[in-house]
Amino acid sequence: MNKLWEKPNLISVVILLIVLGIGITYVMITVNQRPETESFTVDDDYFFPYNFDRLDRVVKLPSELNEISGLCAGFNPNELFAIQDEEGELFLVNSVSGKTINRVRFDKNRDYEGITRRDREIYVLETDGDIHQFTYQDSLSDIPATKLETDFSYRNDTEGICYDPVTNSLLIVPKEQELNPAADNESRRGIYTFDLATKRLNPQPTYYIDQLQVGQIVFGSNREYIIKPSGIAVDPFTNDIFVISSVGNILVVIDRDSQIKHVELLEKATFTQPEGITFSETGELYISSEGRGGRGIVATLTRMQPPTNEQ
């Protein structure tokens, strides 16, 4: 009688069944761990102005943006600048139709993860922390960028960037390792500032998100909720900081003291891999998501007004 190891085809089947079993078990655990509640307002004095149960619009983007990795508001209503994580091209898209309005080549192909702007100055974040800066002009299709280097490297995997008008700086979030990890703050995910006046990065986080606090809010127990930030934006009305993470499909809102004000769990059916977030001047919230084999999307949420107390 042949022994098991003498039957390579049977061994392959056994290994495949084991792998499938582990995968199914992981999926079941993940599903069971997701709480029934998906929206948590922590600060009693804070009104979260967006309803994720009623997205105003979800549009599919051109195939060139299947791997959309960042976006920021354009100059006109319903227009967004976007990048994807392979080509050194800037896309101007219509948030209503999803169609491309303009394309600008700014550098060679690299791993680009985030984009923001201050007036007509565009800043594109590379995964190693380098920032590519150029002045946008409607009439040009090729605008060479200037590279601004930071202390980040590939091990940090920087993915989110936005302009902060409060401090006249760029806010940057690493997805992986912190710049100067501290043993006593292992549960914190840092938000770093790059001063546009001095062109220098603060090596210590200016703000942070505490994963243990998020876990206490979501699970109601002393357990971390793993966050790997993929996008960041500043609310133009409150100056609160919005951070999204594709790992965990979560949105966290913090104030300038790094206190959590709101937590929102994003639906995977819509936000397969959320990586971009931005606001319009009038308060619309835009979130982009990669397609993961399908079309990239941009979702639009209209800002709601706080309820008034009728006498």
From TrEMBL:
Show the stretches that span the lipid bilayer.
9-29
Keyword terms of this UniProt record:
Cell membrane, Membrane, Transmembrane, Transmembrane helix
Where, subcellularly, is it found? Cell membrane
Q: Which domain of life is it from?
A: Bacteria
**Is Amino-acid biosynthesis given among the entry's keywords?**
no
Q: Which terms in the GO cellular component ontology are assigned?
A: plasma membrane
Pfam families registered for this protein in UniProt: SdiA-regulated
Q: Which SUPFAM superfamilies does the record cross-reference, listed alphabetically?
A: YWTD domain (SSF63825)
Q: Which family does it belong to?
A: Belongs to the YjiK family.
This chain belongs to the protein called SMP-30/Gluconolactonase/LRE-like region domain-containing protein
Species, as recorded: Neolewinella marina
